[in-house]
Structures are given as structure tokens and as C-alpha cells.
Amino acid sequence: MAFFTHSFSRVIVLSFEPVMMSAMQNLIGQWLTSVKHYLLMCLLLSSPDRLPHNPFSLLLTGFAYFLVGLLLVDAEHSYVLICAQITLELVMLGLISYVGLNLRNSLPRFQQTFSALLGTNVIISAVTIPAYRFATSNGNSEDNLLIYVTLAFLIWNLAVLSLIFKRSFDISTHLSAMISFSYFIIFQLTVIWLFP
């Protein structure tokens, strides 16, 4: 009887293995689809409604965002401080998404909207941080060059945020630009106030 039970349980485990592998491949495939659309949104060519409805994809993107935060750790900024700022940003983006979608009676879009905001921030941060470090690491870092680089990345970030808000909230470009700019100002003031 013990042999039969052991053999039976082994058959059950072996029969679940392809199902588990298929589910994992599906999850990774959906996340890679999300990453493709994050990249396209950063180029202003896609929208949040094309993202898959998958909470695990959102969790993987959140994990990636905290990993990108490792690039910001230096002598002045600890990982705890960076994680606190990322958490603040996630809370603020989630709150804006919730309020905006709730006002438009489109709350089922929350996961896609939040995923788009998070994923595009991952892509923009992954590009911005090394570029800014490279620009400042050269011994001849001119202030004008740094100002132009910072301004270019800021405009890019605000344009992507505006696109996501416009398409998620189904509002005009002017209103989405005002929301994006207001978010940026409030976030920067909050960071300065909480983390002097």
C-alpha cells in the first residue's frame, strides 16, 4: 500500500509540473508584454489600456522599481531613504490614479493605470540615473550641460505622465499636463519637507 501511495503522489506531482511551468511562462510572458508597452509609452506610442490585467505583473514591476532604486544609493543616500522616497512616490501615484479614475467612474482601469505609471518610471529612472551619473562623473561637468540634461529628462517624464493621465482618465491634454506638473511640484515639495 505504501508503494502505491508513493507512486500515486509522484504521478500527481509530475502531472502538476507542466501546469506550473506553463503558468510561470504565462506570467513572464505577460510581464514582458507589459515591459514592451512601458517602453512604447515612454516613446508616447502606447497607452495603459494595452497592459494585461495581471497583479503579478504589477508586483514584478514594483520589484524592478525598487531594484532600480539601488542605482541611487551612494554616500549621501541610504537604501532606506531611497525606499522611503519610492514608497512615497508610489502612494502619491496610487492616490492620483484612484481619485482620477473614481471621478471618471473608471475604477476598473486602476491596475493598468498604476502599472503604467510604475513601469514607465522604472524605464525613465533606468535611463536617467546612469545618464546623470555619467554627466556628473566627468571632471569637466559644466553646469549648463547638467541643467539641459535635467530639463530634458524632466520634460520627458512629465510628457509620459501626461500621456498616461490623458488616456487613463479620458481627459484633455491640457488638463493631464496640469495634473502631471502639479504632481511633480507636490512630490518635490513633500520630499524636501520629509527628507531634508
How do the strands and helices of this protein lay out in sequence?
Layout lengths: L1 H41 L12 H14 L10 H25 L6 H28 L5 H27 L3 H22 L2
Helix pairs in contact: 1-2, 1-4, 2-4, 3-4, 4-5, 5-6
Summarize the structure in short.
With about 200 residues, the chain is an all-alpha fold. Helix content is about 80%, strand content about 0%. The chain has one domain (about 1-195).
What series of H and E elements makes up the topology? HHHHHH
Q: Which oligomeric form is depicted?
A: single chain
Choose one word for the global shape. globular
Strand content range = under 5%
Describe the largest sheet. Answer: none
Helical residue percent band: over 70%
What descriptive keywords fit this protein?
single chain, 196 residues, mainly alpha, 6 helices, 0% strand
What does this structure look like?
It contains six helices and no strands. α1 packs across α2 (55-68) and α5 (143-169) packs across α6. The chain has one domain. Helices cover 80% and strands 0% of the residues. With 196 residues, it is mostly helical.
